[in-house]
Structures are given as C-alpha cells and as structure tokens.
Amino acid sequence: MVANKSLVDKMGWDFIVEFPFVPGCSLIDVHKSAAECKVQVKATRGRSKKIDISLSNLRRLATTPSPAFYVFIEFDGKEEAQRIYVLHVDESLAFKILKRVYKEIDAGNEDRLHKRKMTIRYSEEHRLESVSGKDLKDKLLGDIGGDFSAYVEKKKEYLQSAGFESGKVTIDFQTNGVESVKSLIEMSLGADREVDVDKITGFKKRFGYKEKDPMLDSQGGKLKMQDVKPAAQCRLVFKDKKIAPGFSFPCKFFTTPINQFVPDEMKAARVEGEFFEVFIYPHLGKANCSFSLDAEKFLSLSDLYSVLSVMQWVGEDGKLLYCDLVFDAESKMGFNVCGKEMGVSYLKEIEAVRKIISVVADFGLSSEVSARLVDLVEYKDHIIEFAEYWSGNDRDINVEFRLNDESLDIDAPVVCVLISTAPVGNYKLGAFYTLQGEACKKDNGVYALKDRRLVLEEKMAVKQGEAVKQEDLDEEKRRIEEKYHKQGCHVIVIE
Length: 495
What we know:
It is built from nine helices and 25 strands. The chain is an alpha+beta fold. The protein folds into four domains: about 1-160, no CATH class; about 170-185 and about 190-225, no CATH class; about 230-345, no CATH class; about 350-495, no CATH class.
C-alpha cells in the first residue's frame, strides 16, 4: 500500500492510502477500482483510550464516500510505537458524528464546528496484533471488503438516509371535534380517510432536529396519509365456534402513535386483508368488521368459499364470531366480532362452491379453476345439480318412456344415456352418465325405471370460450350406446 500524506491538515485526514490492484483478477472484474481510504493518525503517550477531535474534522471523515479510519498510536513515553489501534468510521460512528453536527448547526454553531469537540473512544477490540505495516494493511482491507466500489455505493446510500429513521418531515396541525379525531386515528391506521384540519405547518427534519423555516404553511385544508406501513404481517382466523378450525386469511396489522395521546375509549388498532378490514377497540372490548368483495374478480374456489362463508356470518344479526390474530407460532391475540343484518344471503352460493370443490378435485383441476361471485349468483343452480349428479344422486332425474312396438321384450335392462354440464368460472365441466335399471310398466303404456342407479361414463372439461364440436359429443354417445347394446340392454339416448 502507498500512503500519500496531506501537506496541510485542514481536510480532516493525514493520508490517502492507496492499495494496488488485486493480481490475477478475471476479465469480468478488470474494471473494478483499486481500494483506497482516508486515514488520520493520532499519536498519544497516555493510555486513556480516548481523544477529543474537532467536529469539522470528524464531519469530513464521516461524509467522504471513501472508507475512513482513525489510527491511534500509543508510545508510552518511548521512541517506538508500542500499540496501534484502528477505528473504522463505520455507519454507527458516522451516525453519532452527524447527529452531533446537526445539533450544533441547529444551535447556530455551523461556523464554529472547528472549535467544537467530540470525544472519540477506542478499545482493545481495535488493537492490531502487532505493530506492523502488514497488520495495518490487513485491518484496513478487511473493513473495506473485497469490493471497493460496492463499499463506496453503500456508504453513499447510507449518507442519503441517515437521520431519517423517524421520518423526513414533521407536520403540525389542529383539528376539531370527536369525529375528526376518530377519522384521524383511522387514517393513521392506514384506512382511506381524510380529515379537515386548521393551521398546517410542515418542517423538514433530520436526526430529530427541525429546520427553522417551514416547508409548508397553510391556514387549513384536508389531511390524507398515503402508504402507511403496517406494524406486522399476520393471519386472521374467523370461527363461528370456539373449537372450529375456521377460515384463515393473510393480513396486515396496523397500530398508531396517536393512541398515546387520546382517551382509552378511542384507542384502536386495524387489521386489513384483501377482502376485509377490522377496527379493534381493546378498551371497549369490541371490534367492527366490514367485508368487500369485487363480484367480477376471479378467485380460487377455496378462497371464494372462505370469503363467502365469513361474509355470511358477518351478515347475520347477532352472530358471534371468534377471531384469532396470529402473528407467529407463539403469539396471537383473540377478540370477538358481532354480526349485523346485511339483508343479503349467500347460502345458496356457498352450497354451490362447497359441492363443486370436490368435483373439480376429481377432475384434477383444483389449481386451474377460478370463479367470480357473479358466476356463482347466475349459475349456482346448475352447479349444484351437476355436483349432485356427480355424487350419484339421481332423485331429480325423471325418466318415463313408451315402446314403439308393444310386442318388444322389455325384460332386458334399460340404459338411459344423458349428459350434464355446468359453467364453473373459467371452465365448463361436463359428464356423460347412464341411468340404469329395470322397466316398470305404469298406466297407459308408460314405463319408468325401478332399482335404478346413476353411472358415470365419461367426463369432459374445456376452458370458457373454447368450442366443443357436436360431432365429438355424438361420437361419445354412440360409443356408450354400442357398449350397452352389446350387453343386450335397451338403450335410450336422452337429448
């Protein structure tokens, strides 16, 4: 390494230390800069492990994009150095320096930083193993890391963000009335609200110190918060019975610092999911829940079933729901929600999606099929009927027939071929069945089937919008007819 000494020590460092390029680098890395750093050397004859350095000096090393170090050399009254300590001006030390600088500037002492001192301490953890150039080089390069350019970029990014940990702006305002305060609390919890306010002033701030002149000064207006960050990610479980498994949804949990300034009865937290939001008032022992589902949005069948089930509960007047807010395996919070009459029932839609879920699984399409609420509302009866047939329930199928030739032998088994279809979201499902049984003669030469059973012959599935050729359907019907003709059955095709 090469140390280039500063001729006049006004810039906050004694040496710019340059390191050679790393030999044997690949063609990909040939563009990378060689490492360099700025070093200030402090010699001492004592062992106090501290030294006062001017803020102007510290500021320069803290804000330079290059790596910066203080090297403390202890002589113990001897001519030769006895111990060497290397203190890296890292993010932690840079933060302390810049915070102190901002404090002095806020007090009006910017032109006297060279007279203001800050005590810098070092300890045995900063000591080199030996008083040697090799150990010094290894220490400097070790703190810089293998990529000098990456170090510089990271430090630049840190210098841009340091001091803004609690925000970049402080806004002072006044608002009047209980409802305005409630809206302010809800807005600070991430809800879509706006509040009428009086006398708004806004100040930029850094390291907790506000600028003297406001960036915003208005006699009034509307206040709205955007991009409010949640305090935690969690899951909310709704149950209609304490021991039930319930339905679980991913959600965000919001708290607000305003809680510490308002009466207990106004303190609140908020839970936000894709389909709902819940305001929790812990000191009142209550929670208000609202659901919102876009009827045109495609959802998986399981999600649709979960959402509609909870919406049905929430819409039942006086229905008590048990809710668990689960943060991790060890942490959860319980509360109750009481349903309110909504005037809308989704019981039939819930039945439809519950029954069709197992059918779709039998088709092997659980991950493929999605549906909208509007689809369920329109086709719920078709879907329920299709699912009933799929489960072998034939009670809604009424088959009666006459013989063209009364002399025909009707002792043979009778097989009726039929097809059932249902639109299920982004798919159309279908199935060929045979209703099999024995002919039973009724009045006026009419026959019905007794001892009958419904048998699945073939299933089909196409995406909505894809056409099914009639000749393909006819071919499948003929195949089934021929199969049972060969078995000596009477075959009836129901169109």
